[in-house]
Structure formats: C-alpha cells, structure tokens
Amino acid sequence: MDETELILKFKKGDKFAFRQLVEKYQNSVINACYRFLRNKEEAEEVAQEVFLKVYLSLNTYQPKTKFSTWLFKIVVNSCLNKLRDKKKFSASQLDEDFPAPSEDQPDKSLEQEELRMLVRNAVDSLPENQRAVILLNQYENFSYQDMAKILDCSVSAIESRLFRAKESLRTKLSQYIKKDII
Amino acid sequence: MRCRKIKKKLLAFLDGEVGEKEKERIASHLKTCLSCGEEAKTLSSLSVLLREEKESIKASPYFWNKLEQRIIQAETNKNAFDTLLEWLNRTLIPASATAVVVIGLFIGICLGGIIYTRIAQILNPDSSSLVQQEMSQSFHLSTLNDFPQESIGEIYIGLLAENNLPK
User: Fold this and answer.
1) CA separation (Å) from B142 to B18, B30, B145, B148?
2) Is the pLDDT of residue B94 over 90?
3) Closest approach of chain A CAs to the CA of B30, in angstroms?
4) Same-domain pairing of A55 and A144
5) Whether residue A181 is found in the same domain as residue A98
6) Is residue A179 a contact partner of residue B38, using CB atoms and an 8 Å limit?
7) Are residues A94 and A82 in the same domain?
8) Alpha helices (runs of H) in B33-62, residue ranges in sequence order
9) By CB atoms within 10 Å of each CB, which of A1, A103, B23, B30 scores lowest?
10) Does A129 lie in the same domain as A119?
11) First CA to last CA distance, chain A
C-alpha cells in the first residue's frame, strides 16, 4: 500500500495505517538522524520525536507536497535542533584527526574502516547547512528542488551549498580520491 | 560554453539536475576539454567515496512499542489540555467579557458627566451648580405651573381657549 493510501486511512481513524507508515520509513529516518548525530541512541530518540510530530500533525499534511519531503523537513529540523542543543561539532576537529598518508602508497596504506572514518569526519566537520545538503543529496538522493523545500531555501542556494561542501570535502580527501573511477 | 561556466554546472550535470539541451552541451564539452573532464572525474570519484561511507543502522526491535507509548502519553496530555481550554471557553471568557462591558459602561458614564460639567463651566463660569439646577428643573413640579406671561406657550393656550378647543 502506498503512503498516500496509508495517510488517507490514518485520517479516517485507522491507527494501524500509521504503524505501517512508520515501518516503511523508520530505518531511513534513523539512518538520517545517525548521520547527523553520530550516536545510535540519540538517533533513535530523535527519530521517535520525528514520528511523534508526524503523528500529531499528519491531519494537516497536504498531498501537494511529497510525503518524504515533508517528513525529512521534520527530520532535518529535529536533528539540527538537537545538534545546536548539544553544540556537538567543532570544525577544527578534522585537521587533528587526519593521519598523514604514507609517502609510498598513500591510498593503499589505509584500511577500509579508517577511510570510512576519515570520510565521516570530513562530512561531520562541514558547517550545518552544507552538511545537511550533502546528507540529503548523497545518502537520501533527494532532488535539488526537494532539498530546497526541505531546507526552506532556493534551488540556487542548494547548488551553492553543495558546491562549497564538495570543494571542502575535495580538499580534505584529495589524497584518497581515485580519479580512475570513470 | 566556457570552462568556468561548465565547472559551475558540473555538479548539477552529474546529479542529473540540468535540462536536456544543457546536458548535451556539457557532455559535448567534456569530450573535448581535458580540464573539465578531469574535474568531472574528480567530482564523480568524490561521490563514490562518500557513498562508500554509507553506514546503515536498523531500528531497535522495541522502536514501535516506545513510540506507541509516547503517542498515548501525548494524546492524554492533549485531552487534559483540551478539557481545560473548553472550561475556559465556557466560563472565564464570557465572565471576562461581561466584566469588560460593565466597567466600560461605568467609565463611559463617569467620563460623560465630567466632560459635561467641564463644558458647562467653560461656557458659564458663574454657574458652578449649573448641573444641579438643570437636574432639579427637569424633575421639579414647577413644570406644572402656568406658562410665563407673553410666552409662546401662554399665547397658544389663549388661542385654544378662544376657539373652545381642549388644552
């Protein structure tokens, strides 16, 4: 059953339809929260808050907006609020954590897990607005238009943030980018 | 198309966010321009690198149970709040509105009296008890006395008497 039908059923009072909606999106929401917060317990906690907000305001949801766009707007706002409350991230962390690659074979000397940590740190060190566009673009595959709706800005602002984010990531990860992929 | 413009649009091109015509122009340029071609490869590789980091976690088995408890709690709180709001609507708001009207009337009457007195004093500074005189004349039995001599009222009464018409 697609989400529009589930939402219509919920609006008519079918609470089981809401459970089905949650089961459809829970992993996606939890993972998105995890990528912002980098803590599994907090990710699940915030995901619960997101679904509670969805439950309480689903009757006001208008189908002219895609449900996933509406849902992820709540996800992003909840995660950013949580981050601001915690003041979790400092951009200066990354430079200290980066190991110097060996001179002989800089990319082969790192194990896969270390590389993933580096990439994760690089993304986590981005300013909030750039990090949000990277997470939505790279991991949730939202279009620029959907991202603009989620983040309440224009498409050109999305393009600009993505450009700056990727420039920053490219600088930090330049030694690990394989140019022979294509 | 110049390289500077192409490079600005490369991300959108790689993400499939440009129109068909622009897509063809950029693709055609990339075939012939080494610099832009390298740039496109780097950006694509970066995307691949970012996607390789994609760690996945799953919801705990009790996710729905915990959520359900929070929903029940939120609905209970909402019902208590709704009940309070309804009580306020039924009692406090009408009572407040009535009080406002009564107070407003009282203030209006007081202000009206004050303004009347002030105007009367300005027009006739000697008549400090003008209001009292006006009031006493309005409610005094002197209204039942005959009309003053040569007044319009006396002439009218005289005419009625001459023509044997009731007064």
Assistant:
1) 99, 112, 5, 12
2) no
3) 13
4) no
5) yes
6) yes
7) no
8) 34-52
9) A103
10) yes
11) 39
More confident residue, A142 or B133: A142
| pLDDT at residue B40 is higher than 50 | yes
Do A70 and A116 fall into the same domain?
A: no
Rounded Cα distance between B167 and B161, Å, is 7
Domain count, chain A: 2
**Is the pLDDT reported for residue B141 higher than 80?**
no
B81 vs A: CB within 8 A = no
Residue in B with minimal Cα distance to A115: B53
Same domain, A57 and A140: no
Distance from CA of B13 to the nearest CA of A (A): 11
Domain around A68: 1-87
Nearest beta carbon to residue B17 from set A123, A144, A177: A144
pLDDT averaged per 10 residues in sequence order, chain A, 182 residues: 86 90 94 91 95 91 88 95 74 43 49 83 91 93 94 94 94 76 40
Query: What pTM does this model have?
Result: 0.67
**ipTM (interface predicted TM):** 0.76
In Å, how far is B72's CA from the nearest CA of chain A?
Answer: 10
Q: Could you read off the pLDDT of B142-163 as tens digits, one per residue?
A: 566 777 788 888 888 888 888 7
Chain A residues with CB-CB distance to B under 8 A?
19, 22-23, 26-27, 30-31, 34, 40, 43-44, 47-48, 51-52, 55-56, 115-116, 119-120, 123, 134, 137-139, 143-144, 159, 162-163, 166, 169-170, 173, 176-182
User: Is residue B48 scored above 60 in pLDDT?
Assistant: yes
CATH of the domain at A99: 1.10.10.10
Q: Which one of A29, A42, A44 would you mutate to disrupt binding with B, by most B Cβ within 10 Å of its Cβ?
A: A44
Which of B15, B49, B60 is opposite residue A177, by nearest beta carbon? B49
Q: Is A38 left (phi over 0), alpha (psi -120 to 50) or beta?
A: left
Q: Across residues B42-54, what is the average pLDDT?
A: 86
Report how far residue B35's alpha carbon sits from residue B104's, in angstroms, rounded to the nearest whole number: 80
pLDDT at A92: 41
DSSP secondary structure string for all residues of A14-64: -HHHHHHHHHHHHHHHHHHHHHHH--HHHHHHHHHHHHHHHHHHGGG--TT
Mapped onto helix, strand or coil, the DSSP state of residue A1 is coil
With CA atoms as reference, the chain B residue closest to A171 would be B46
